[in-house]
Amino acid sequence: MSGARTVSVVFTDIVASTEILSRVGARRMDALLAEHHALLRHIVLTGEGAEIKSTGDGLMAAFSGAGPAMRAAASMQRALDASNRSAEVRFGMRVGVATGDAHARDGDWFGTPVVQAARLCALADPDEILATEATVLVGGAQAPQARRVGALELKGLDAPVQTWQVSWQKEPAAPRVVIAEDAALMREGLSRLLERGGFDVVGQARDAAELLTLVTELRPDVVVTDVRMPPTFADEGIAAAERIAAERPGVGIVVLSQNLEPIHAERLRACRGAGLAYLLKDAVIDVESFLGTARRVAAGEREVGAA
Questions:
Q1: Are residues 60 and 187 in the same domain?
Q2: Are 77 and 216 contained in the same domain?
Q3: Which of 166, 188, 217 is where one domain is finished?
Q4: Residues 14 and 151 reside in one and the same domain
Q5: Is residue 39 within a helix (H) or strand (E), and if so which, with residue range?
Q6: d(CA 255, CA 268)
Q7: Are residues 253 and 245 in contact, defined by beta-carbon separation less than 8 angstroms?
Q8: CA distance 151 to 135
Q9: Quick one: 180 and 275 in the same domain?
Q10: In sequence order, what are the beta bridge partners of 49?
Q11: Which of 6, 15, 109, 154 gives a 20 to 30 Å CA spacing to 100?
C-alpha cells in the first residue's frame, strides 16, 4: 500500500500473556499464538481487511471501511469466545478500532488512527472492543451496535478522544452430549451424527457406571443412552436415566432401545426433570428426525409416549 487515505485500523492484544507464558512455557505459547493468529487472520481476510503486522500478542489490521472493521472486531471476539470453550488454555483479548487519514509506507500505516487504535486497545478490558466516535458514526447500519463511553485521554495525543464500546454477541454454545452405548460402532456412529448436527460430544461411555461418572465429571446438557448395557444387559440404561434425572434434573435424556417396552416408558415418564425421549434405535436412521428430538430434549421437552 502507498499514499495517504482514510482507513480504519484494528489492534488486538491478548490479556495477561506474560502470565500465560510463564505457566505454559515458550514452546507451548508459540503454538497457541500461531493458532490464535490464524483465527484472527481468517476473519481479517474474509472481512475486507488486510493484516499489516503481528504485534507479538496480537495483530494490526487495516480496513477500507469503518463498518467492516467493526464487524471484524466483533467476529474476532466471538470466534475467540467459541474457541475458548474447548481450549485447555483460554485467552482474553482487547481490541481497539479507529478511523481517519493515515499514510502507508513500507507495508505499514502511520498516522492518528493508528495511534488511537493502539491506545484504545491497551485501555480496553478483557473481551472488550473500544472504538473512536468517528468509527462508530461512519460505520453504517450494518455495523455492530455501540454505546458511548466518553472522552478518554490517550497517550501521545493532545486532545481527549470520544470513545464508544462496540457490542458483540456470543455464539450460542452447542449442547454438550455424553453417549452411553456398549457397541463401539453404534457409539461412534451416534457421535459423528450428533456432531454433524451441531452438538458437542464431550464423552462416550461403554456402560452405565462409566456414564454416571462422566455425567458427574463433564456436566453435559444431554445424555443419549442405550437401555441395555453391561454387565447384565437388562435395564442399566433406564436405571442410569432415573438416577441422572433425580440428581441432575437439568440434563436432558434420550433413551434408545431395540424394542419399546411399556414398563420402561412408564419408568421414564415417572422421572422428574427436564427433557426426556424414548426412541427405537431404528429411529436414528431418520437423521433429521432424531436430531430434532435431541434438540427438543436439550430444550427441555418430553417425548415419552405409551409404548
A1: no
A2: no
A3: 166
A4: yes
A5: helix 26-46
A6: 9
A7: yes
A8: 14
A9: yes
A10: 63
A11: 15
Entry field: residues in the chain: 307
Do 55 and 137 lie in a common domain? yes
At 176-203, the pLDDT tens digits run 999 999 999 999 999 999 999 989 999 9
Q: Which amino acid is at 178?
A: V
**Residue 140 forms part of a structural domain:** yes
Total-model pTM: 0.65
Model pLDDT for residues 52-105, shown as the tens digit of each residue:
999 889 999 999 999 999 999 999 999 999 888 777 899 999 999 999 999 988
pLDDT on residue 117: 97
Range of the domain at 299: 176-303
The sheet that has 200-205: what strands, in order across it?
200-205, 176-180, 222-226, 252-257, 276-280, 302-303
In one-letter notation, the amino acid at residue 11 is F
51 located within any domain: yes
C-alpha cell recorded at residue 200? 458437542
Contacts with 31 (C-beta within 8 Å, 6 or more apart), sequence order: none
The span from the CA of 62 to the CA of 207, in Å, is 54
